[in-house]
Each structure stands twice: as C-alpha cells, then as structure tokens.
UniProtKB/TrEMBL annotation:
Keywords: DNA-binding, Transcription, Transcription regulation. It comes from Endobacter medicaginis. Signal peptide: none annotated. This is TetR family transcriptional regulator. The lineage of its organism: Bacteria, Pseudomonadati, Pseudomonadota, Alphaproteobacteria, Acetobacterales. SUPFAM superfamilies: Homeodomain-like. Residues 1-58 form the HTH tetR-type domain. GO terms for molecular function: DNA-binding transcription factor activity; transcription cis-regulatory region binding. InterPro entries: DNA-bd_HTH_TetR-type_CS, Homeodomain-like_sf, HTH-type_TetR-like_transc_reg, HTH_TetR. Residues 21-40 bind DNA. Pfam families: TetR_N.
Amino acid sequence: MAALLDSAERVFATQGYAAATMTAIAAGAGASIGSLYQFFPGKEAVARGVLERCFGQLYAELDALAGQPVDAAGLADALSTLMLRHATARAAGMAMLDAGSAGQSGVRAEIRAGLRE
C-alpha cells in the first residue's frame, strides 16, 4: 500500500488533484487498477490515505518537538522550519489544498478534519 500512496503523492503533485486519475496512480506504483481499488474505493479515499500519512508524519514531528526544552524564539524557529519543510516536501498536500479551494469539498473536509485533530 505504501507504493500506491507514494505514487498518489507524485501524481497529485505533478497533475493536480482534479486531473489525477486512478489509472495514473496505479501505473505509477506498477500495480494493476484492481489492486488500487482493493485498497481505495475512489480518488477521495486515496487522497485521505495520503493526507493521513502526511498529517501522521507532521504530528509525530510536532510531538517530538513538544518534548524538547526550548525558549519561545527557539520554538518559533523550529516550528517555522518544520512547517516549511513539510510544505515543500509534500507537494501533493499542497495540490490537495488547491483542490479544496477549487471546490473539491470532500478533500477540503479531509484537510480540515486533519488540522483539527
């Protein structure tokens, strides 16, 4: 399943969420379309998987940061570095944020839910 999510991230980042297809995601992972549908019933489910993985990694790093003794300036610096790194490394997440602003309500709801947790 990791290969499918890796492929989905690449496809969302290069083609954008709206233009991405399940066929392109499966092909990018070297998997059959049936294999993709075995794990994900549709593109929104794939997007949810990508977002869950992205947010999971971000939250793990935030938790690690929370356990470090730093002053306010150090914390602000560490947070800005962390957020910038995730924003640039996760182009797929940015593509899905764009999709959310373009009216893809299911994706936008997933992003909001992830941010609230």
